[in-house]
Amino acid sequence: xxxxxxxxxxxxxxxxxxxxxxxxxxxxxxxxxxxxxxxxxxxxxxxxxxxxxxxxxxxxxxxxxxxxxxxxxxxxxxxxxxxxxxxxxxxxxxxxxxxxxxxxxxxxxxxxxxxxxxxxxxxxxxxxxxxxxxxxxxxxxxxxxxxxxxxxxxxxxxxxxxxxxxxxxxxxxxxxxxxxxxxxxxxxxxx
Length: 191
Known about the structure:
With about 190 residues, the protein is mainly α. It has helices spanning about 1-10, 35-45, 50-60, 80-95, 100-110, 115-125, 130-145, 155-160, 165-175, 180-190, and strands at about 15-20, 20-25, 65.
């Protein structure tokens, strides 16, 4: 029953990741998940402990289990490259608050580091990690503007994974041509 549930989720395009006692779901296809996915996910929540045990058994002791939907397009085609970029972008958005290294991004893409950089440079004009930093800075800015004086800038920045606040402030100013404190001041003046 639970094994069938895991198989069904992976067959429609979900990736199941075991992290400690948590099961993370990532939808890896470019279109929206089918309507049946919601029911399957609800079932997964009910039998989460069993799913964790299955994933642990499949992965062996002390490792993370990953069941991935594979890129359906032939290697080297424009569709395959676009699909790899989509997978990386999705992973970047979903893990933006976490510590991620280049190897993690490379593994998600399923292509070499060179091809990954080449694709990001061609489509976005920057490296994958620069794309990730830009996204995180944009989210911090959005949070500052939304929260006004209810949250501290350092708290918001730390929530988004910026642990060195001096460096964060420099990067923020480079990106938006103003300090985070100036953004906050502006948001208070224009509620």
